[in-house]
Design goal:
The protein has about 230 residues and is an alpha+beta fold. It has one domain: Pseudouridine synthase. The chain has helices at about 40-50, 70-85, 160-165, 215-230; strands spanning about 10-15, 20-25, 55, 65-70, 90-95, 105-115, 120, 130-140, 145-150, 190-200, 205-210.
Length: about 230
Amino acid sequence: MPKTNYRPGDQVLYKNNQLIAFNKPPALPVQGDREGSMSLLELAQAYVKHPLHLIHRIDRPASGVVLFAKKQSALVQLNEQFRARKVHKRYLAVTGALPPEREGELRHWLKRNGRLNKSFVVAPDTAGAKEAVLHYKVVGSSDHYHLLEIELETGRHHQIRAQLAAIGCPVKGDVKYGARRGNPDRSIHLHAWQLAFDHPVSGERQTIVAPLPDEPLWNFFKTLLEKSDGA
């Protein structure tokens, strides 16, 4: 099994006796895959020294918040919140092209191809298609790239990647969805930035924020985000 130098204890974002969240680096799968790669789930379980329950996933080449349940009861409660769309997910994506509007909604119908591990935009009446809805706004730009803040209304397979590609704005590094070149580390510039949910016992609203990867382009946009927050 390939080795990894990721230290989960250094990347804990949130923990209590019900839940624990980590900041996943790009290229590390959330759970085991066909390549036999070490997964975040395995590393997290080794860190807490007991089994964890997978609540949700983010794509392997993406980074950001991943939340696990320590107890079956917490898993059931969070799964229900996901089904009821009470969990709010915000992402940051870097693209090489600007969307047609600075802020807006994208609404498509997606169909997943399991063999290709890819989702395609299809006609609404296509068998097996599911509606995908997200909201975005352009936060700022560098000389060649643009930072988008995205809030998901639905949680479809590769939704952000497929929908941005459909409007001519593939995520930087995402050659699977039309980016002209990949990133050297096989990452894509897509980051699961914020995850908000109700605590499974207290019911209090919790918001987890994952710091951006330490990488030149992300660091540039981090400065823009800090300025926009302070404005």
